[in-house]
Every structure is written in C-alpha cells, then in structure tokens.
Design brief:
By secondary structure, this protein is α/β, with parallel strands linked by helices. Helix content is about 40%, strand content about 20%. Helix 6 (about 95-115) crosses helix 9 and helix 8 (about 160-170) packs across helix 11 (about 240-255).
C-alpha cells in the first residue's frame, strides 16, 4: 500500500490532517502524497523523539529520506518486523509498534470469532533500547480488546516465548485457550535496530497467510486506539509469566539431561558470554540445573548493554572477531571451551582450544553435525520407546546435508525446509500432529541456530548450550575433544565441508540485475530460463538448478519446485557434477547477498585438504562469475 492509499484509510477512520506543514518547511503543496503523509505522521506520533527526527529532515528539506521514511512502511517479513529505530513509518518507533499491535490484535479477534477459543498474549523483550517500552505499548493493544496479557517483568531470552505459547495451556490445563507470543528483539542486529517477532499459538513463528492477514489489519487500524499511549501502571493490568515459565523451562532441561552424574563430575570447564544480551542469568541457572560447575563469565560482556560496546557486531556468528573478549577470559582462566549466545540468546556459538593453543570456532554446520550425532547417540542409549525410523531431524535448505547423510545410514527420517526456523518449527509441529508415534529429535540451520527439544519450536541458544556442554563432558571422559569427534563423524559419514559468506548490497536494483542475469545467462532475450551450465571455462559442470523465486527446479519432474516459492526474495541453488551444492540468496532482514556452499566427499575420500581446495576454487569462481562483486562495487564480509 502506498502513502496515498494509506492516507485514504486514515480518512475513513476519521483522522483529521493538519494543514500547513508543507508551507512551514518549504516543501511544497499540502496536497502532494509526501506532504499528506508528513502531516499525518506529525499528527499521530506522540513521541517527541521520533517526531523530532522527521521534523529535522523536513527542516533540512531532505526529500529523499522523507520519502523513504514516510512513503514506505515496515512490512511483516521474518515472522514480524525489524528495522532501525527512529521516526517515520519505515522505522521502529512507538507509533509503528502501536499500529502493528493493533493490526495483530484485530486479526486475532477474527480468529477468535471463528474458533470460539479464548486468547491470551504473552509478551517478552530483550535489553535493547526501547524494548520494554515497545512491549508495554504492545500490551496496551491487547488489553484494549479484552485479551488477558502476560507481560514479562524482566528481560528474557527469545526462546521463552515459543516455549510459553505451548507450555501455558498445558500448565494451566486450558484446552480452550490459545496463547500467542510477541518478542521485542532485533536478535543480533546492530544496536540501532529493534524488532517485533510473532509466534502463533502452536509455539512456532507465524508463516503465510497469517503474516499477510496481519498486515491487512494493520492498514485498517492505523489510528491509535483510545489509551494506546497510556503505559502508566501497565504492570498492574498484566500478569507476569516469569515464574511459571522459568520453572517449566528449567524442568524441561532437567528432564532431558542424559547423564547428570557425568556433568557433575567432569573436570572440563567452560567460559560463557551473553554478548551484552539477556543470557547471563538464564545460562547460569541452566548450568546449575544440569549439574555443571559454574562457568567463567566474560565480565566485559556479562551485563545487558544496548550499546554493545565491546563488539562491532553483536553476532557470535561473525567468528573470532566477536569472541575476542571471551577468548581472553578463557586463556586467563584456563578453560578450553567457550559458549556464546547472541543478545536474545536464541543462537549458540562454540569455540574450543586445541592442544597447540589455537582456538577453533566451529561454524553452524559443524555444530549441527556434532549435535546431530550426539542426539542420535542419546536416543540409541536411552529408554525411548519410539523407534529411530519414526524419528525426524530437520535442516534448512542452505545448511549442511550431513543430517541427510546420517539418515541414509542410521535410519531416521531427514526433512529439508526453506531457510529459517519459521519453516522448521511449523514443520516439526505438523509432523508431531500426524501421529503420537513420531518424535522430533533435532533441527538446525547453518546460522548457528539449533532446536534440541520440541518443547521450543524455534532455535534456542540456552538448551543448545546445555546439550553441547553435555557432549563435551561425555567426550572429555573418553579422552576426546569436540574437534576429535567431528573428525570421527566425517570418517563415518564422509567429509562435508562448507564455505559460506556474504556481500553487502544496499541497492535493490543491483540485486535484481545480478539474479536476472543468472536466469538469462546464455540469452538475455530468451523467454526461457537459461541458467549457467558450468564455471571456470567448463571445468566444473552444473547438473541441476533450483530457483525458489520463480519455482523452477530442473531436478524435479516438470521442472517444478516442491519447496515453497517466494517471488519477494531471491534464491537460486546450483548442483554440480562433483557433489558441490551452492545457494545464492538475499537476506530477509539485512542488505546482503549470501552464499552457502557445501562439498560432500565420498566416505572413502581421505584427502580432505584436496576437498577443501576444490571447494575454495569453485566458490571463488562462482563469486566472480555469478555475483561479480568488483563490477558492482559490493562490500565483502568484514574479517
């Protein structure tokens, strides 16, 4: 919906526009769409800080930025909205949160009318700037429509919200009540950002068509409802779920422990960092429940700090550059394993010190292999009545196929989904609903996201941290390290090596050019798709192409993709004759062109250095020939 259409919606709900701002700031006539939206915004926004951002742009006559902020709107993407905090409809601010929450609540009301089931909202928030404020404004929208609202009294990890959506109904024995979740967080984004993440009553992130229907209801509820800004005494109007959810969450961890005795007796010691986020107290309590000795804390990062002062990016996925303080702490304390959460504690990074003194930071695919193997081991050595053939593991399409290889040998079922836990969480929920005799063992994505318990249908850095710590303690008893076990896994299943990275591209037109060229690689004028057939002058041949933007898949009958297609994002996968798979895609939350590659070697291939060299050669060829970063002036991932 453009600015003019949005303005018409406001006229329909009775919002009066202020005249004169165009003349006041020398921007032109009041009847232009931009000026109408400027008048509208300055009328509706009662937050003086975000309003001042727009006024400053108007006084500076910064028309391009005013158009960007007032003629566009944050739309539901990865299960919600996320963006830079500031003024305007295209930013995260009080007004946008109010409008978004009113749209969400309005849509849930229609769902309640159809289902006849009562509804509750569970709202959490991280330690970023404005997160508590945004959570309170969200709560007001629910209260205004008669929802029971459970608002956390303190910052909490994102996994608490999907856990709560399922657990609350079970704990309170309310079969006629649905619990929907909202988490205010921008996860690992820069400090300037914040976000709004929505969970359906099944405990998984929302997917289509819910997101589109919520967006429609947002446009029909742009005028703040009476009392929408009145956050005074909000805590008295809401219930606090903290104690109930904490007890249930840690009881789930306790019940899932494999060997508390090994945990208690291990000599292995850990260093932990929440990276200025919410995780410190929650991981500390998880360690206590699991029976481990207290971990070494990274003092410079242990307390929540929305400025993230010690890291360039608050994202442990960035590797050693994000773990410098943790490595210093570990070296000083003599610990050999580092566990790191991102600021909302839904991701887990792991590093291990080798005998030579070097630190290995495991990538997400390597951790997926380790945790996958460990969870199979636990299943096979426990009293679970469900046979392995009725157990499932899930990974996103851009993640390693190591679980697929394990499944072919060990007998469980592997399923691939689109990128993101909104797909994996909902798939896990659907599978369990098919039969009581099905068990979801594990799900992961290469971006260090791991679901190790179906109690949380989303990535969870806390429970994954405990599972990993248990594995490390078990291996330590056997005289092995995590790196040793990873080598053993590759010896059992074949070497799976990946090389993933990204380029920054802030120009949508360039992104469009890059992907359009790949679809018309041999003939720009052709009406047919003519994807590349090889790289490096024919040295490595392409045997298949899957394009989940257009729905083309040469590996399927009738060239039709079986995974869901999205025309709003770019995603092409190339399959090579020698076993390489590489996916190029755009990010849903960041201005990036990402690539994910993996070369799967036969089990009998033991020259792993040669495999790595081949992978690197091919990736460089693909980057240079397909993405062309030099031609387009793209910035690579910083080291």
């Amino acid at each position: 919906m453009n600015g003019l259409e949005r303005n018409n919606v406001l006229e329909e709900v009775g919002v009066m526009k202020i005249k004169g701002h165009g003349d006041k700031y020398g921007l032109g006539e009041d009847e232009t769409p931009l000026i109408k939206n400027l008048n509208e915004y300055l009328l509706l926004d009662k937050n003086e800080t975000s309003k001042a951002d727009i006024i400053a742009l108007a006084e500076a006559k910064n028309i391009p930025e005013l158009k960007n902020l007032l003629m566009n709107r944050l739309e539901f993407g990865t299960a919600g909205i996320r963006g830079k905090m500031g003024g305007g409809y295209a930013s995260m601010n009080d007004l946008v949160i109010i409008q978004t929450s009113q749209g969400l609540v309005s849509y849930l009301e229609t769902h309640r009318i159809v289902s006849g089931i009562s509804q509750c909202l569970i709202i959490g928030y991280d330690g970023r700037h404005n997160s508590r404020r945004f959570a309170e404004l969200t709560a007001l929208a629910g209260l205004a429509r008669g929802f029971t609202v459970w608002l956390f009294s303190k910052i909490c990890p994102t996994p608490f919200i999907p856990f709560a959506c399922k657990y609350m109904a079970e704990f309170r024995k309310e079969q006629t009540t649905d619990y929907f979740g909202i988490m205010i967080t921008a996860s690992h984004n820069p400090k300037e950002d914040n976000g709004y993440k929505v969970y359906w009553c099944n405990g998984a992130q929302i997917v289509s068509p819910y997101d589109k229907k919520i967006q429609e209801h947002i446009f029909n509820n742009l005028n703040p409802w009476p009392g929408a800004w009145d956050t005074d005494k909000i805590a008295e109007k809401c219930k606090d779920p903290y104690e109930i959810i904490s007890i249930g969450y840690y009881e789930t961890i306790r019940n899932d422990l494999f060997s508390p005795t090994v945990n208690k007796e291990t000599k292995l010691r850990f260093t932990y960092t929440p990276m200025h986020g919410v995780g410190q107290d929650y991981m500390r309590q998880a360690f206590e429940v699991a029976g481990f000795s207290a971990f070494e804390s990274v003092e410079s990062q242990m307390n929540p700090d929305p400025e993230f002062p010690t890291v360039r990016f608050p994202n442990p996925e960035e590797g050693k550059s994000a773990l410098n303080d943790a490595i210093e702490t570990a070296n000083r304390s003599g610990t050999t394993i580092i566990l790191a959460n991102d600021p909302d504690a839904d991701r887990l990074a792991v590093a291990e010190k080798s005998k030579s003194g070097d630190w290995k930071v495991f990538n997400g695919n390597e951790l997926g292999a380790l945790l996958g193997w460990w969870i199979i081991y636990i299943h096979n050595n426990s009293k679970c009545p469900i046979e392995l053939k009725n157990c499932y593991m899930i990974a996103s399409t851009v993640s390693s196929k190591i679980l697929e290889t394990m499944a072919s040998r060990d007998g469980f079922t592997f399923i691939e989904t689109l990128t993101g836990f909104k797909w994996m969480g909902n798939k896990a929920h659907d599978l369990v609903n098919l039969s009581n005799g099905i068990k979801i063992l594990f799900a992961f994505e290469e971006a260090i996201g791991f679901m190790v318990s179906p109690a949380v249908l989303d990535k969870d850095g806390i429970t994954a941290g405990i599972r990993l710590a248990e594995l490390a303690a078990h291996l330590h008893n056997e005289g092995l390290t995590l790196a040793d076990q990873l080598t053993k896994i590759y010896e059992m299943y074949g070497y799976h090596v990946s090389e993933n990275s990204y380029y920054i591209c802030r120009d949508p037109d360039i992104i469009e050019q890059i992907f359009t060229r790949l679809r018309k690689f041999d003939d720009e004028a052709s009406d047919e798709f003519t994807y590349p057939k090889s790289i490096l002058d024919g040295k490595y041949k392409i045997t298949g192409v899957r394009d989940l933007t257009t729905g083309f898949d040469s590996t399927q009958p009738n060239n039709t993709a079986i995974l869901p297609v999205s025309k709003s994002s770019q995603m092409i996968t190339f399959y090579f004759e020698n076993g390489l798979t590489i996916t190029l895609r755009t990010s849903g939350t960041e201005p990036k062109i990402k690539y994910y590659s993996e070369l799967r070697a036969p089990r009998e291939e033991r020259d792993w250095r040669k495999v790595e060299e081949t992978l690197h050669e091919m990736v460089q060829g693909i980057v240079n020939e397909f993405i062309q970063p030099v031609k387009y002036g793209l910035d690579p991932k910083s080291d």
